[in-house]
Amino acid sequence: MMRPARLTAALILPLLASACGDAGTAYPALVPVASILAEPALPDAPGAAATDPAAVAAPVRSRADAQRDRATPQRGPVIEPPTRARMDRAVARHR
């Protein structure tokens, strides 16, 4: 004979497990594997670059130069020299 606690658990646990799902939410649509693995569709014509590459290169070069200018201040040391010297002294003391 089952104990009352086990019987109660055996009846309540499946109910609790079924209450965890959201029945109102639609299941997402499945996508065929072939469409996931297929090569992406690229445009047929490269546009202005095919007829006049220099017209496309100038704005791209300008944007690249602007990005380099923005990056220049980041090229310095990550830790300022006085802080680095203090850290090096502390490490030397503990060797």
Describe this structure in words.
This protein is mostly helical and 95 residues long. Helix content is 60%, strand content 0%. It has helices spanning 4-19, 33-37, 48-51, 53-71, 81-93. It is flat.
Can you give keywords for this protein?
single chain, mainly alpha, 5 helices
Summarize the helices and strands and which ones pair or pack.
Blueprint: H1 4-19, H2 33-37, H3 48-51, H4 53-71, H5 81-93
Structural class: mainly alpha
Radius of gyration: 33 Å
Task: Give the amount of beta strand, in percent.
Answer: under 5%
- How confident is the prediction overall: mean pLDDT? 83
Describe the structure concisely for a colleague.
This protein is mainly alpha-helical. The chain contains 5 helices and no strands.
